[in-house]
Amino acid sequence: MDPLVSIIIPVYNSEEYVAATIKSCINQAYTNIEIILVNDGSTDNSEEVIRQFTDSRIKYFKIANSGSCEARNFGISKATGVLYQFLDHDDLIHENKIQHQVEAYKVHGNEYIYSCKVGSVSGNVSTIDPGYELYNKDFTPQQYFETVLNQFGKYITTGAWLIPVEIIKTTYGWDGRSGINDDGEYLMRLILPSKGIIFCQDSIFYFRRDVEGSLSKQFDSKEVYVKWLYSYKSYVKFFLQYFSPEKARALGRNALSVYYCASHPYYPELLKECREEINKLGYKTPVAYGGSIFKAVAAVLGVDITLQLLAVKNSIFKKRRY
Fold it and tell me: How many separate domains does the chain show?
């Protein structure tokens, strides 16, 4: 019997996009699915859009506005599937996405997580994005984190994964304290106890680039940075549980360096806290996290001087990097 796949979608003020997201689920070649839509206190016409769909596989819930993490956790509490697909309310999945991942699941089973190709959609145009090729292979947990924490600007996001419920059960739910990196922090806690990641060549996930006010663009308060740092401190905590001490410290340093380099020069007190966490791991400085030019300059001048020069350059051009 084909396993039931639970597709969990938190919805907040997405009247413009949520219909397309729902359609991409309804039109899946793999039909044994339930689509759990959690309206997280939307104030627009999202509910009216959702109620236009009559597919019996849709389960619609409405909760008081609590944030996407709590909405996803609510969705998990209502799900009955063997496999979980998380989507944002503006994501799309190719019609064969789940089919091919379920086929891989039938071969490899409950101890693995299943990934796919990553693309994007802008308007009505969907493309496979360059730069994600490094993820187009199978990984052990250690290999995955060695990859994702040693590159710049490309990450596999929420909708790419298909996750067995047995792995979902290994940890607590989505953590709102992680802010903009809530998906990375949650997947970290799922990947670590698994045997690894199986890449599904013919599955494709598309994230939407053209959404005004998307969470990834909202670096506009100290709270955002506090939560961002929390997420990478969480990586360190769990790396120390699952990897050898030496490997955990090295990967933990890399994780904290992502925050340190990407958030500089904002909120010096948080940068100081981040550096102290790096020191606790036995390192004096963060590693250079950035593009090839940044790394080349940092190799000569050091990370801090290079970050200071970059901050001066950005101030001259009055450009925030986010």
Answer: 2
